[in-house]
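This part of the workshop introduces the protein records we will be handling. A record pairs a protein's sequence with a compact description of its fold. Comparing a sequence with its tokens is the quickest way to learn the format. To make this concrete, we reproduce a full record directly below:
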Amino acid sequence: MSERIRVFSAAKPSAAIKVGAFVLVLTAVFTSSFWTGRTVGPIGRVAGTYDGDPAPAGSAPSIPSGLQISEDGYTLARTMSEITPGERTDFRFAMIGPDGRPVSRYSPVDGARLHLLVLRRDLTGFQHLYPAYAGGGQWSAKLTLAEAGTYRFLVHARPEAAARPLTLGTDVFAPGTARAHPLPRPEPVARVAGYEVRLTGSMAAGRARTLTFSISEHGRPVTGLQRHRGGLAVLRAGDLALLRTRRGQALGEDRGGTGPDLRFRIAPPSPGAYRVYLEFRHRDVNRTAEFTIPAEQAASSSPDGPLPGEDAPHDH
């Protein structure tokens, strides 16, 4: 049964007030994030999500990507906390560096300087956007939120001075009466705009396994997948933690890319349900196939060794 939730809206400030208050917003967010960092403790690697390898035995747990607004001294700041559903909006944000100033220089990550993932808290309405630089350390992404509800905004980028890519997250509200959609049940096939994507493989907590996605169009294997703007996003149901994945088979550099099979190594940090978004590009058009994949509780050891396509846990 669906659930209706009322998302309340505050009075909208004028455009002039929004622009004038941007520096104050950045300062306030940066100050509050300091206390957040002190509360949750230091940030480390997520078990298995960066390199596709299981975490060493006895290693300390760490916070998955995207759950925090501040990490490693960098803080995500936005100019608005709500967006009217169905209305085209210029969403602006900045990443504040350890020196308290907006970051303007980034190293490319997966073919772009910044990635913005947007989706509702019930894992619907997924969007992968590529913001444009608006000057003064601000970035701009034009977007539309289809329904009322609470949305998670995840910014994935690597400031030039940062030791590694970061994923920072914040909530944005779309006021109105929101209908909560149940998580779709697991299915091996997803269909989108005449394409069929078939999933092979499974996931287990703390174990790196390979998921294979086979893409066909009207029954024929697709072999011309393009490298530009494609990939896999894996989010944990409940808290929307983002898992980094390792592509097992790279796409081609031009229109004559690979296919029909795309492989990714995934090691979820915990059992439970995950929503998986496969983005692929064919004939200069981006498509997204969505899956629900459960991660089972893997046994600590097996007398027969790891399953095919699975990495064994480390003993050190």
The chain has a mean pLDDT of 78. Residues 22-40 form the longest helix (19 residues). The two ends are 47 Å apart (CA to CA).
